[in-house]
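G., before I forget:
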Amino acid sequence: MNAMRLAETYGAWLDRSQPLTFRFDGREYTGCKGDTIASALMANGVKVISRSFKYHRPRGVLSMAGQDGNTLVQIGAEPNVRADLRLIDDGMIVTAQNVFGSLENDYGRILDIFSRFLPVGFYYKTFYKPRGAWKFWEPVIRRMAGLGKIDVQASPERTDKQYRFADVAVIGGGPAGLAAAFQAAEAGADVILIDENRRLGGSLNYARHQPDYEQVVALRETLVRQVQPHPNVSILGNATCTGWFDDNWLAALVENRLVKLRAKSVVAATGSFEQPAVFRNNDLPGVMLGSAAQRLIRLYGVKPGRKAVVLTANDDGYGVALDLVEAGTQVDVVVDMRADEIRTELVAAVKGKGVRILPGHMVYEAGPGAGLRSLKGVYIDAIADQGKIAGRPSFIECDLLCMSVGYTPAAQLLCHAGARLEYDETDAMLKVNEETLGENAVIAGSVNAVFDLDAAIKDGARAGHVAAGLAGYAASDPAPAPGKAKMPDMLEMNTGEREPPHHPWPIFSHPKGKEFVDFDEDLQIKDIQQSVAEGYDDLELVKRYSTVVMGPSQGRQSALNNLRIATQAAKRPSHGLSITTQRPPFYPEPIRLLAGQSFQPMRRTAMHHRHLELDAQMTSAGHWQRPACYAPPEKRRQFIEQEALAVRNNVGLIDVSTLGKLEIRGPDAAEFMNRMYTFAYTKQPVSRSRYVLMTDETGAIIDDGVACRMGPEHFYVTTTTGGIDTVYRSMLRWNAQWRLNVDIANVTSAFAAVNLAGPKSREILQSLTDDVDPSQAGFAYMEVRTGHVATIPARLLRVGFTGELGYEIHVPSSQGEALWDALMSVGKTLEIRPFGVEAQRLLRLEKGHIIVGQDTDGLTIPQEVNLTWAIAGKKPFFIGKRAIDVLSTQGLYRQLVGFTLANDAPMPEEYNLTLQGEEIAGRVTSIAYSRSLEQSIGLAYVLSDQTAAGSTFKIKLSNGQRVDAQVAQLPFYDPEGQRQEL
Amino acid sequence: MTRAGINPQAFERRSPVYRSLTGKDTEYVAVNGGAVVSSTGSPATEKEAVTRLALCDLSLLPRMGFKGSGTVAWLTSQGVSLPPGVNTTVRTNDGILISQLGMTEFLILPDLNHAGDPGHRLMNTGENNETAAAGTYRLPRQDSHCCFAVTGSFAAGMFAKLCAIDLRSHKFLNLDVAQTSVARVNSIIIRSDLAETVCYLILTDTTFAEYLWHCLVAAMAEYGGEVIGLNSLIRLKT
């Protein structure tokens, strides 16, 4: 049994049957299933959980709700874990972070002693001079800054994302949220209720609300019972909504999943954050919010202290006192900041327990134990005026101080959606300006400044009713809340049943300071005042200068008091003022959750697995996977050359399914082709193919391929692998303007295709087709046939990208693998060899054919790459014609030429520069060693006066060395083109 | 049709995902020139899964697309009823589904609820890419797209991990069509229930078929989804 563990009537979230052991800061502790790290430590009497960011002061539980930076710890590779939320696991190893030495003995605490020399803005003023000083200080500051440590070697966890949809999203499962969800669901709306806790009920799980706690428990059960089984309600439990974006797009973290929720309307019943009082040493372990003590008692069965003082400015503090007393903590006194003695049932109940009540008093200072590691007692005094004491302090010994002095709305999500928080001096709190709420946003409960429990439930029902209406559900009257008045009364809800529970000035400065406004950044009252004094008198400026509200808690406990102190220092009214901008995320989002599952679409041709079976090295081309070569990595170059030689001397087979393919059909098909491409197509005979070259409006080459005329009104067009999307989009765009009677269909995936190339290709084809004559006489170069290959319906093209006799065979993709099998099977006796993209690149280089995108860039015009022949000059129009005509009159600056290297010359790389003298002339675009030619050959841009065949130019290698290259006549191989026309 | 001992590679037409379906107990049925998985070998598992969450490869079943300005008139002349609008589907009396994908674009699929007529005349009116009639152009959907069926009550939840469209059965109604992105790949989703069981047909560029198949299988794991054969779907219709 842990020292501070309460009896089993407490600790509703624990499973005491499952004890767990974990380590913290080198020591072993026990807890039980359901314990958070912080609750288990508190149960073991450990109060110090972290050290503060700047002064390394010991810190303990503050909110017990994951809403502060006091409980950040490291678990393995995961930094900045909130110990008051993270459940313990058996064997878990938890370490303190941001300490020099150990948590117990942190050398960094010396900074606290010298804190007077580290005033606000110290960083900005100190390290920038003398000149160069920053270089010295930067590593020092970087070493001291930061909290946890990331492990760059950590392997990522699997995460994913899920889209969810709702008519009404309710954020917050407290009394107002439950009532709203029920009401909207009853109206017929699909409701998703998002709640960050393990159990629905919000404050009903731990807060007292009234003397008889059993009634609170019963109320919670009733509300939950209404909602949980409701067919229209889905519950996202343990889910934190981190952002509210346009059109009610809500981001919610649910374990290892990011839920993207889209709702027609949203009810924000997000509750409020209890606020600390500001006095000297208000950060000591043992000083916590009243709600934190109640959470420890009710949820985790932990006695927060042995002897307590309660500082309050509302009735909730009396609920805390009552809970403490009943849990066995000695409570001698309730220090009530309100001047008048309050007479409510709760107050009476506390008095009935023999607790002394001191109205009009304040805790002026907390007395520290050794090393600031605990609370020894508090100094209390009568309040003389705003922020001032009478000067007659008395000391009360205690190890626990609970603060219940007010709340601020948890309105961050609302602010993401455009709402504005404004300070209301009358009620001494920030309120959401309803006029700034989005059209389909509704608020309910304490975020709406409704703190009375009955009123909050009514407010929730009202909000659910309104939200259902906004989502298109003409709701009937809201159903009554359990045991409460019916709808008409609810709509006339009275939020004034209880006086506002906020003290207007729970801030008491001390001559010795250390009254912390912002625990995250160790900012004291004087720091805020100093910022204003130095001219940073706007809240946004105070924030940036002092770093207030910029820490892990993002101002949850500091924004309100900062507003009060800064406006007072600036001598400005606070009424109507807003706090600094609230940006997503509301709660830290692990980047792995934002990344989610990585979807990386991958396209495979019909023959993909055949390539793998043949040990192909695959290479990516956009989404496509293509065989680069069929070789083990260590023999890559050798096999590429062998594959190319096989095509030159025998027969090879390459999968060209990735080529883009388009059907252009309709009465205006030829006219359309004529406009889209540079060549002439109106007179192209049926069953013939023709080269296509596409330029953009500036005359720059954007794609090439082959157009097959399948019929008078039908062209089958291929594009480059990477160019199809651009070409298809461009065709659709232009024809939307031209309105030609033509249909354009992208059929890239519908056809698998191979190129059967080499002198023996005809022999193979001959044995696989009955209805196509593959002879030169029956099927000449650049002709097209339809027929069957291995009984598979096929389109056959005699094209010559490799420079050899070859047949491109296109078949329905579902039959692509069967075609490959048939060709490889029949070709086996002829020693057919599959070849990959690399061999094809070599083969086409030998023929001097360009690859668009490799041998061209975004400015290349046809004349520069010797494609003037592909321009039909007599055509009145094609895209880019005017630009090409104009550019033709101006002479060329550069040109693509073929070149050879001496056999002993070092091999340049593609994109090495070409030179004229020492000036850049161009670049190498393609280069390879040709086994057929027994020479290194390439293509390169040079200046137009360097193009004479036989002349030389220099190439600058990556290492700076120069190599001589000789301009060669293209093509390098078979200049007469006889082999492809065999 | 033959049953036992069928090898998918013995057929010219092969599903782009046939390798992912190969198992020692897998049974095939010859359909439309290819071998379709009729059963994965565990009828009891399939029967339970098909109403919970199941995935079935229908890629080898016939389908055809038509588009062009004359398509509406031509289809009407063929005596078939047309869907009420874009992104809707009509189920005809003679066993096909006609989905309207655009103002003048239609997709014809077999209706698994029907007795089964894979050779419907609209899918066998000539070579895929010939012009059907003036202004009516065939689209080779059988080869350009793979087709999978996802069935069961958890299907919408599973899709929610891959797709941003609300496919819940009370929002995305029977015979609705969505043209959207699934796991970052353009897809057509058609809801075509089989008797009382929710069924989504998903059609995607066939070159992404294996990628999408594995995405779907991975997404189904959370809900205990199973890969099933065609027979389990056909059984649902009665």
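Chain A has a mean pLDDT of 94. Chain A touches chain B through 48 residues (CB under 8 Å).

More on Monday.
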